[in-house]
Amino acid sequence: MRLLILSLLAAISVQAHAQPNFSKDIAGGSDHPLLHRYEGSMLYMFGGENLGPARIVDSEAGKPVLRKVEGKTANRFYWGPKGRSALEIHRNYQQALTAAGFKILYACETDQCEKAKVQHLVQELPREANWKSFDAYVSSIFNSANQPRFHLVSAAKAGPGGNTHVMVALSEYTDYQRVRQFVQIVEPTVMEGGKVTVDTRAIQDGLQRDGKVALYGVTFDTNKAVIRDQSSEQLEQMAKALQAQPKMKVFIVGHTDDQGEFEANLVLSQKRAQAVAEALASKYGIPANRMMPRGVANMAPVASNASDEGRAKNRRVELVVR
Q1: What pLDDT score does 162 carry?
Q2: Quick one: pLDDT band at residue 104, thresholds 50, 70, 90?
Q3: pLDDT, tens digit, 9 for 90 and up, residues 264-279
Q4: How far apart are CA 84 and CA 238, in angstroms?
Q5: Which of 47, 114, 154, 227 could share a disulfide with 131, CB 3.0–4.6 Å?
């Protein structure tokens, strides 16, 4: 009985919802640079986050499945121009993605989508997406019971930092004679590190207990051995720990993830370890003969390199007692 009442209230809310203003975009919104809207469409909602989770449709043994990905997410919801069909808009998106070098992971038009029950897979995705301002009315019209002429295309493109995913789900809304378009783009991104500094006591405890300690507060410019200014606090804590134990000698070990060629990563990790040793010697007076910099590239991972999160954990500097 309670569910019936809630359903009736939801239906009344949808009926009472004011018709969107199709003449202008929502304030502050724009197309994503990677994928422009179907010509004549109106941007109704937008959002995203620098590093977040998402679910995209993939294919497994010819059947649609949801897969978890993470990265820089960008979400858009458009109303199509009046009178244009979902099929026409869907094929335009698919054509544009293919022309841009994307591999189609899964695509379906109305009959195939209904047969594979794709609507049931994606009906919650608009709710999960990060929006600047969320209109529950939009979520309700993506319910699997109310998706006439539903179409979907999910695609991916490999790049140096990982895969970029694009998914477009479409369905017609007969009351407005317009097509609603949910577009989600997930790009590879590097988590901004150096936000947590390990203090002197923790460094000392780690060296005594484990003979080593990983330090994520030392960060570098991408593919370079230039220490970022934000690393100064971590370097200071490292120096204090070494000053407190003047007889201790350490390896300073540079680690990378598995992106790129191994030999290049080996050189890079060595240069980064050397940069840390030089900074500790020149700025904090730690004798150079107490420190031996070594780079090991990606030979000692602490997490899987299959995800952005794992790769971020593998990119680190360690102090190791010798």
Answers
A1: 79
A2: very high
A3: 999 999 999 999 999 9
A4: 63
A5: 47
What number is the average pLDDT over the span 243-269? Answer: 94
∠ CA 242-247-251, nearest 5°, is 60
Beta-strand (E) ranges in the chain? 42-60, 63-79, 103-108, 151-159, 162-173, 178-187, 212-215, 250-255, 291-295, 316-321
Alpha helix positions (H), 165-297: 200-210, 232-244, 262-284
pTM, to two decimals: 0.61
Residue 116 has φ and ψ, to the nearest 5°, of -85, 0
* 303 phi and psi angles, rounded to 5 deg: -155, 170
Amino acid identity for residue 237 in this structure? Q
| Residue 307, helix vs strand vs coil | coil
Gyration radius (Cα) of the chain, Å: 26
Measured distance CA(75)–CA(31) in Å, rounded: 10
User: Mind listing the pLDDT tens digit for each residue in 127-170?
Assistant: 888 898 877 766 655 665 556 789 999 999 987 667 899 999 99
Under 8 Å between Cβ of 170 and 183: no
Which residues contact residue 306 at a Cβ distance below 8 angstroms, ignoring those fewer than 6 apart?
none
Question: What is the chain's mean pLDDT, rounded?
Answer: 87
Give the integer Cα–Cα distance in Å for 171 and 65.
Answer: 19
Q: How far apart are CA 116 and CA 265, in angstroms?
A: 44
Helix axes 232-244, 262-284, angle to 10 degrees: 70
Name the pairing type of β-strands 151-159 and 291-295. unpaired
Q: What is the pLDDT of residues 196-216, one digit of tens each?
A: 678 888 899 889 889 999 998
**Which two structure tokens, joined as six digits, stand for 109?**
């038009």
CA distance to 217, 266, 298, per residue, from 193 (Å): 7, 21, 18
DSSP state of 252: E
In whole angstroms, give the CA distance from residue 259 to residue 315. 11
